[in-house]
Write a structure and sequence with these properties.
Elements lengths: L3 H11 L7 E5 L5 H10 L4 E6 L5 H6 L4 E4 L5 H4 L4 E6 L8 H6 L1 E9 L13 H4 L4 E4 L5 H14 L5 E5 L3 H9 L6 E5 L1
Parallel strand pairs: 1-2, 1-4, 2-3, 4-5, 5-6, 7-8
Helix pairs in contact: 1-2
Length: about 190
């Protein structure tokens, strides 16, 4: 929680996640699974998991998502246009369909990038921001006060990350498995 947890908690909290908000989490992995847990614990009206394929749908629903969007499905963006107030993107791919993601936001919506791709974020038309007054920002980690608040919420709402424990002796294989996208959803190395 001290890294991936607060990386997703802080932007949700800073941007008003809670009752009355419809929240989307892009990327259901080490960061994204935390985003779903926090959005639900903060009592957002609706929590939507967004991923390329439907492969993680069952997990996302167990993590607290109310709905799931698979971006490989035809018409996903037009079907869900304007349905969200806040999106936290945990993905780190230069192939993100940015214009389509921004289309999911309603008037005054906020898009916060927490995934850190090495390549530039894909281009999108300026009107994607202008027409609906969408804000685009980024966030990394959180303050000591936010960490304390996050841990208190975790204790009061029984929020627990999904981890897989691996022996320290398997660190090399754990790194290979991590690169292959196998963790569900964080590896913890035990000595």
């Amino acid at each position: 929680m001290m890294c991936g947890g607060v990386t997703t908690y802080a932007p949700l909290k800073r941007n008003g996640c809670g009752p009355g908000k419809r929240v989307g989490i892009i990327g259901i992995g080490g960061l994204g699974h935390f985003g779903l847990l926090w959005a639900k614990a903060l009592k957002a009206d609706k929590v939507i998991a967004i991923s390329r394929t439907a492969a993680k749908k069952a997990d996302a629903l167990k993590l607290g998502a109310d709905e799931y969007i698979a971006t490989e499905e035809e018409g996903w963006d037009s079907k869900n246009a304007g349905s969200l107030d806040l999106i936290v993107s945990t993905v780190s791919s230069p192939k993100m369909p940015m214009a389509s993601y921004l289309n999911l936001l309603g008037v005054g919506g906020k898009f916060i990038q927490v995934g850190a791709p090495e390549d530039p974020i894909p281009a999108f038309p300026a009107f994607a921001l202008l027409i609906k007054r969408i804000s685009l920002s980024g966030s990394a980690i959180g303050s000591p006060a936010e960490i304390k608040e996050m841990l208190e919420l975790a204790a009061s709402q029984n929020v627990k990350p999904w981890i897989e424990e691996r022996p320290m002796a398997e660190v090399n294989q754990a790194l290979v498995d991590f690169e292959d996208g196998k963790p569900r959803y964080r590896y913890v190395l035990k000595n």
